Amino acid sequence: MRKLGCFLFAWILLTGATWADSIKIPIAAPFTGPLASFGEGMKNGALLKGEEINAAGGINGKNVDIVLEDELCDPKEAATVATKLANDPKVSVVVGHLCSSSTLAALPIYRGAKLPAISPASTNVSIGKMSPYYFRNVYRDDFQGLFLAKYVKIVKGYKKVAIFYEVNDYSMGLMLAFMKEAKKLGIKVLGTEAYTADTTDFKPQLTKFKMMKPDAIFIPGYAPQGTLIISQARSLGMKNVAFFGADGLDDDLMVKNPDTEGLFVTTPFLPDKAGPQAAGFVKAYRKKFGKDPNWFAANTYDAVGIGAQAIKAVGRNREKIRDYLASINSKDRAYDGVAGKTYFDKNGDCLKEAYVKKIKNGKWVSAEKQLQ
Amino acid sequence: MENLLDQSSLFLQQLVNGITLGGVYALIAVGYTMVYGVIQLINFAHGEIYMLGAFLAYTMVTVLGIPFFAAFILTILVCACFGIILDFVAYRPLRNAPRLAALITAIGMSIFLQNLAMMIWGSQIKSYPRDMFPAIFLKPALSIGEVSMTWIQVFILSITVVCMIILHLIIHKTKIGTAMRAISQDKTTSALMGIGVNRVISFTFAIGSAMGGMAGVLVGLYYNAIFPTMGYIAGIKAFAAAVLGGIGSVPGAMLGGGVLGIAEVMGAGYISSEYRDGISYAVMIAVILFKPSGLIGRQIGEKV
Amino acid sequence: MRWQLYKKDPRFVFLSLIFLAVLLPWLPLGASTNYVLRIMTTAVLYMILALGLNIVPGFTGLLDLGYVGFYGIGAYTSGLLSIHYDLSLWVILPLAALNGALWGTILGAPTLRLTGDYFAIVTFGFSELVVLVLRNELWLTRGPMGLPGISPPSIFGHPLASDWEFFYLILLLLMIVLLVVTRLQNSRLGRAWFAIREDEIAAQCCGVNLIRYKVTAFAISASIGAMGGAFYAKWFKFIHPDMFKFWESILILCLIVFGGMGSIAGTMLGALILIPLSEVLRAVLPQGLFNARYLIYGLVLVLMMRWRPEGLVPFKRAQAKKAKLAQERLEI
């Protein structure tokens, strides 16, 4: 009998809803687990925006409730979280996910529930096309890879590049885009090697690269591995090889490591290039969290803003919000946020500029030459 | 990459990498092999002790401010105790239970410990702080042309060799070592001969865990990356090494470790880097299926 | 007093549970209906998987640590067939089951003569290799890009869309699997399996061809796992190698250990309790603790082995014998 009681209690917990009437904007991202540092940026950006909205009176008088849903960058968790959100009548728009595999897992559920979602961080190519309910305010991997190839050729003048990629969709998507453009531009890709998320010993592959003598090594992966790769490379005696990467390496972790001097990466967000609004955002973020915002924070800040604007304009009906978002489809209708002007194309993707930043003297600075 | 000099440099460097990796595997494998020798159980949680060693040293240095070498010694001692506790709590009560129960318990402990570590330390990769150990570790000890071997690689190899020698001496020249060998041959008769079986088993766990913990700290130094699931992966590979060398045989563990380390590095370097972990699994499956006694071992569970 | 009635006639329990299950989508749960349905669909899916895994340790005393490999094989078979050939679920299910059985036989034939620990390790290695292949062979599986866009199953031309439709579908699958498993248990095959579990040598002396029965058990177990995977792919409409990690095998193992290895009712009960429990934990526990729910699963394994190795619903036939044998058992 007691077991039954427990079950009933649990049942009530699950089926019961929040008590106050607020507008829930859920943020679905990994807040714990290996990618938690990225999720943290998203969380902070969202919380900051939520605070600012509420301080200015909320959306049509109601407070915004930023709800954090941890999905660990795992497709199964993402699907469970997505179901929960889809069935919550207080949720009319979702901000998330981060990892492309999570987004792809959640996508059919949002589509089935006609729930619009904005991803501030999923860069995988297929997402936009697959659902009219998914939007994103970050550029795609094929664009980023292309951009990097151009930058490398035009600004840096590297002729021989090796690629050290992780076996996941983000990294491989970037690599393929880069290689395609590199071929057109005449950059020679000397070789590619792979690693998995739990690899810590990169020496065998790095040794191979060392013998190839590249000008630079492209690491289209994440910071935790990136920092190890560079350190191990230096310890193998690879002093004259440059390293570059993409947004996955844009993390403080890289800065903490003295070996990474000179590393440059593409990023969707550079405070000094993004206009006066961004300055205010950076200041407020610094005040609240004690450090500079990264691009996850900036994009999520904007994504929440876009969602809030939609709700303000058309109310909480999911279909109407979706249509509103779809109507942000040109430069003059764009949402002017801290990460630039966001507007969506017919697939829900957006065209954003990529910036380059590098590590100089142990700090992230904007690279001297940008490419537009 | 064309000329022969480059090719041979590459090969030699990979060999150096492989031997060092092999040394680490050997240290962990020894723990597996000794425990299997005395109680015929694959201690799945052994990988977690290795992981705990890495994290304990990390915590001692960063949080408690203990200097490195002291932390190193302390970690080894704590891990040894931990091994004893593990046996006492999880395996001893099931000494006479069916094998399946003991196996499931071992797996359960492994999962439990991994997640406990995740809860305590978080699942992100941590690095030992730069100033923690003498900077000389990163410098190459000797370089011949393009091939270099850092001091830390030397350190790892020397510790491995020293440990193996000490272990060999313990097993063959001391009373307790003889007891271990006796128990691995026939537990019941050993008990009848007056050997305190449980005590000796605890001792076995202590030594195996001490070496596992040591390996953990060394790996943390070498790769500068520790994370809660490192035990699970390294554990399986070390077990593969133990089986390859001949489970129950300490020299076998060392040999198996070396061979597996080199095979993995060569495989990753020359064949395919995606299937790097798969090499260990494949080796393990192949050995178990075709030569279960391994390279050195004669019969399973005979020699310790 | 009520429990006596339940204990006396398990069919009564069973029927009432079925009745409840069928009613589930229509219960007044408000907006959470779909969420609850999804959880229950997951629970029933795990019941199927657990029933499949249960065959190996439950009926033959060996531990299969690589079950997730078959789960993944089934899911990818289903996903790929669905995407490339657009086959119906009713064609895919048997094909996936056959594929599972095939790999079960390939894995089982050389390995089933090993002792328990080695068998466990080899099955583990196998499942890791399967996942590695799924991850790396992009030409086949698209690797880490995953397989999005799998079409849902359709019945008489109507594609399944709502959660309750999937729920009924999985209930149907459960019925099929239950039928298979109970028939097996009471058949000659089943009796041979129990003989092997209790005492291999004695069984051999009675003329039981060890290898043949063991491999059959393994193949059937694998095919059930593959069927579960096939459903999974069509239900999620997206599969990815990350969904088939070793943890899944542990979870399913936990379900059968908790419920009672060898016992069909126990296995189902284990799934019914533990799977929704993890969702309840998600709502109740603070985030950090929840993500370590595998901590609890690990603990469950250890504690169950220590204090109630037969599980919640012990398998009666084996129980009495086991107690006797445990006292006399020597390591052979």
> What is the CATH top level name of the largest domain in chain A?
Alpha Beta
Outline the biggest β-sheet of chain A: 7 strands, mixed
Distance between the termini of chain B: 45 Å
SSE sequence of chain A, one letter per element: HEHEHEHEHEHEHEHEHEHEHHHEEEE
Compressed to H and E, one letter per element, the order of chain B equals: HHHHEEHHHHHHH
Rg for CA atoms of chain A: 21 Å
How would you explain this protein's 3D organization?
The complex is a heterotrimer of chains A (372), B (304) and C (332). With 372 residues, chain A is α/β, with parallel strands linked by helices. Chain A folds into two domains: 21-139 and 274-342, Response regulator (Rossmann fold); 142-267, Rossmann fold. Chain A has helices at 2-15, 36-55, 75-86, 100-112, 127-130, 141-156, 169-185, 203-212, 223-235, 252-256, 276-289, 295-314, 318-327, and strands at residues 23-29, 64-70, 94-96, 117-119, 134-136, 160-166, 188-195, 216-219, 242-245, 264-267, 335-337, 340-342, 355-360, 363-366. The radius of gyration of chain A is 21 Å and the shape is globular. The model of chain A is unreliable at 14-19 (pLDDT under 50). Chain B has 304 residues and is mostly helical. Chain B has a domain at 21-231. In chain B, 72% of the residues lie in helices and 3% in strands. Chain B has helices at 4-39, 46-62, 68-91, 99-121, 151-173, 175-185, 187-192, 197-223, 230-245, 250-271, 276-290, and strands at residues 140-144, 147-150. A two-stranded antiparallel sheet of chain B has the order 1-2. In chain B, helix 1 runs antiparallel to helix 10, helix 3 (68-91) crosses helix 8 (197-223) and helix 5 (151-173) runs antiparallel to helix 8. Chain C is mostly helical and 332 residues long. Chain C has a domain at 36-245. Helix content of chain C is 76%, strand content 2%. Chain C is built from 16 helices and four strands. Chain C has a two-stranded antiparallel sheet. In chain C, strands 2-3 form a two-stranded antiparallel ribbon. The longest helix of chain C is centred in the N-terminal third of the chain and has 28 residues, at 33-60. The radius of gyration of chain C is 20 Å and the shape is globular. Residues 318-323 of chain C have low confidence and may be disordered.
What is the compact description of this entry?
The complex is a heterotrimer of chains A (372), B (304) and C (332). With 372 residues, chain A is an alpha/beta fold.
